[in-house]
Specification:
heterodimer, A: mainly alpha, three-stranded antiparallel sheet, two-stranded antiparallel sheet, 7 strands, B: mainly alpha, 13 helices, flat
């Protein structure tokens, strides 16, 4: 890439005017901003772009989970329970005419297999229930982003038939709907935990770097101590003890461990276990303020410490921090699903999370060979973690001047 | 060298003490005191509870409790389990041994598979094989261990279903749960060894897969970097054969972090096996830890935390030593 380009291509109105002002002189040179270079490099990284697109898609499905899911987050019927229903078969061919028709499902009734004593479901082919689109279900309202309330669902069938695209769990809850709702928890927790880690890292690293001496020693020892305890066990013990509403801290603040509180708790625990590395980076960054030549030059020109920090040091490591943060999101997602899998994440009441859904497959008396659809929630975990890794790798290469293409 | 080790050991002490303090502080989060649950059992007399309370110093302030516990720890006594009345050491010994089996086997598997894969994909960069390895690496990186274990279990069930229907062979290919068969006690030593090894195949494979992903990627990147460096060009100019270039000149420096990684991997594999042990009901550390937490058997929890922390720190020390021993550029500073 050369930097001698028509400024018009950069698209900015202001630059256009500047260009016209100097028009007729020498060829106008406008160098690209760092952000633009990174974006152009990133776009060349095919895998990263695909990862980014898939991620955007996944986050959109999480936002519009209520609309896309045919059932409510905790919706189930007591009689009959419809536990462990296999995925509902959607028919496209009308058995009477043998022609293609609008998709429909049958209601099913529960029976016992004579030989294996397993519960089986048999289609009752007497009545066809066509799949309807844009149905209203006033009994199960939902909110988008916690603001817009609605009861419009993308698809559904008339009672008593029900459509379970990915089967049901032990309580007869629709796995497809719960995977969609679960994305809201599993996809956001990673990002929120990164913010907590970033906040703690900035605060502690900043304190250590600015004050030095005793404060520095204390904070850096704390980082070492946290790193010395195996991460998984630290996570488990913190999550498990803190989520008990009778623990001293919860009693002092008056927490009752509602699902929102356990969600926040999980975020904080994840962030607490993960801030150490960032604090080290921030501290090193501040300490290097006195070492770097250009920082010394800025100082000689009369720049204040704050200016050096904000104008010179933070931009110089921002790229590193951004990449580091992006690549730590998948780790947090995996940690959250792991905790939820153990039942130590967000509480099961009114929440769904991909880890919690996989936990259903390990419930007492469940043999995975008869309910393989309960493993479906693992696929979005895999996808999300994979795509965040791809995006992180793409960003790292894009920021790295040595890897410019 | 000796001074280096001693200095590192001395540096470890404050960190270790800090870790025990943090662990003890966390243990104070248990509601009430540790004996609450014990007191609810119908066959436990109140006097017993009182006796235990004073025995463990639970009626004293926190710092006194900590000092008492720490003094015992230094003497090698981790306290008594509230649940089984065994010393903690005895109670956690077996799970730790079991986890170690799993860790060692998966570690060997990890190295045996990922080193050749890394070399291959570095030497044949952008070939089909390299791309397969890359895909595999991303796969291992992104799939949660416990989910992978569940999927493999399902696959084995499906395979059994298939062989039963076609050949009438109603056996699992590999055992999917536990560490021993039900008739383990009646086996002789060799059969017992085989039985455990057989049960280890699946969990070790799952644990190794996630490690392999990272390893292969790092080795590949390292190898590619060295293969493009000046000394390799010099070696080629001298007329060193391709084999020599790959294995003597490029592999040696590239493999250094792996040699050093052995120390760091043992404890991390013990922790990393975590959820796989839960899914496969393997009687290792993580299930023991969860059990202890569930029954609020706090000295067992603390014991496991302390021991695994110690393992982690020793592992890090070993990797530093190995690194210094293998890499001539590093001096014992």
């Amino acid at each position: 890439m050369t930097d001698a380009q028509d400024p018009r291509l950069d698209g900015s109105q202001a630059l256009d005017q500047v260009g016209e002002h100097y028009a007729g002189e020498a060829t106008q040179r406008v160098s690209k901003s760092q952000g633009r270079i990174v974006w152009e490099q990133f776009k060349k990284h095919k895998a990263a772009v695909v990862g980014g697109v898939v991620l955007i898609f996944m986050y959109l499905t999480a936002v519009f989970a209520g609309f896309l899911a045919p059932y409510g987050i905790n919706e189930y019927r007591r009689a009959p329970v419809a536990a462990f229903r296999p995925p509902t078969q959607v028919h496209f061919i009308d058995p009477d005419t043998g022609r293609l028709t609008r998709p429909f499902v049958y209601d099913v009734r529960e029976e016992r297999d004579e030989r294996t004593r397993q519960r089986i479901y048999v289609e009752d082919t007497s009545v066809k229930y066509p799949i309807k689109f844009f149905v209203r279900r006033p009994s199960q309202p939902y909110k988008i982003l916690g603001i817009w309330q609605s009861d419009l669902r993308l698809f559904g069938v008339d009672e008593p038939a029900r459509v379970f695209l990915w089967g049901t769990n032990n309580l007869g809850k629709d796995v497809f709907s719960r995977v969609l709702y679960g994305g809201q928890v599993s996809l956001t927790i990673g990002i929120l935990a990164v913010w907590v880690a970033l906040f703690l890292g900035l605060l502690m690293g900043g304190l250590a770097g600015f004050y030095g001496g005793f404060v520095d020693d204390l904070i850096m020892r704390l980082v070492e101590v946290i790193a010395a305890i195996p991460g998984l066990f630290l996570l488990i013990v913190l999550a498990s003890l803190l989520r008990d509403p009778r623990n001293p801290i919860a009693e002092a603040i008056g927490l009752r461990m509602t699902s929102a509180e356990t969600f926040l708790l999980t975020v904080i625990v994840l962030g607490f276990v993960g801030w150490g590395g960032l604090a080290r980076i921030i501290r090193g960054l501040i300490l290097s303020a006195r070492e770097l030549d250009y920082a010394a030059a800025a100082k000689a020109l009369g720049a204040s410490e704050t200016r050096i920090l904000w104008r010179h040091l933070i931009p110089s490591t921002a790229s590193y921090v951004i990449v580091d943060l992006t690549l730590s999101i998948p780790g947090f997602i995996l940690a959250e699903t792991g905790l939820s899998f153990l039942g130590l994440g967000p509480s099961e009441v009114d929440t769904s999370s991909w880890g919690l859904l996989l936990r259903d497959a390990t419930a007492r008396g469940v043999s995975i060979q008869f309910v393989p659809w309960l493993l479906i929630p693992g696929i979005p975990i895999f996808l999300a973690v994979l795509c965040w890794n791809l995006v992180g790798d793409g960003l790292r290469d894009a920021f790295d001047p040595k890897k410019r293409r | 060298m000796f001074i280096f080790i001693v200095r590192r050991l001395v540096q470890m002490v404050p960190t270790f003490i800090g870790a025990t303090m943090l662990a003890f502080l966390i243990s104070q989060l248990v509601p009430g005191d540790f004996l609450n649950r014990k007191a609810l059992e119908p066959n436990v007399r109140p006097e017993t509870i009182e006796r235990m309370r004073s025995q463990f110093g639970l009626d004293k302030p926190v710092h006194v409790q900590y000092v008492r516990w720490m003094t015992n720890l230094v003497k090698g006594n981790l306290g008594q389990s509230f649940v089984s009345n065994q010393p903690v050491m005895q109670r956690i010994g077996r799970p730790m041994r079991n986890s170690m089996y799993l860790a060692v086997v998966s570690l060997v598997l990890l190295y045996v598979v990922s080193i050749p894969m890394g070399i291959y994909s570095a030497v044949r960069q952008y070939s089909l094989g390299d791309q397969v390895v890359s895909v595999f690496a991303y796969f291992g990186l992104a799939i949660p261990n416990f989910f992978f274990a569940q999927v493999l279990i399902l696959c084995l069930f499906l395979i059994r279903g298939f062989t039963r229907d076609t050949f009438g062979w109603n056996e699992m290919l590999f055992p999917v749960a536990g560490m021993t068969s039900s008739n383990f006690d009646r086996m002789n030593a060799w059969q017992q060894f085989k039985d455990i090894a057989w049960h280890l195949v699946l969990p070790a494979f799952v644990v190794a897969t996630s490690g392999m992903a990272g390893f292969t990627r790092v080795l590949r990147a390292q190898m590619i970097e060295y293969l493009g460096s000046d000394f390799i060009r010099t070696a080629r100019a001298k007329g060193v054969a391709q084999r020599g270039v790959t294995y003597k000149h490029a592999l040696r420096p590239a493999i250094i972090p792996f040699v050093a990684g052995i120390g760091g991997l043992l404890p991390s594999l013990v922790g990393g096996a975590g959820l796989v042990e839960v899914v496969m009901s393997y009687p290792g550390i993580t299930p023991a830890f969860l059990d202890a937490l569930n029954s609020q058997d706090i000295y067992v929890v603390l014991g496991l935390l302390v021991i695994t922390t110690l393992l982690l720190m020793i592992g890090n020390l070993i990797s530093d030593l190995l690194l210094a021993a293998v890499d001539p550029r590093i001096r014992y500073g």
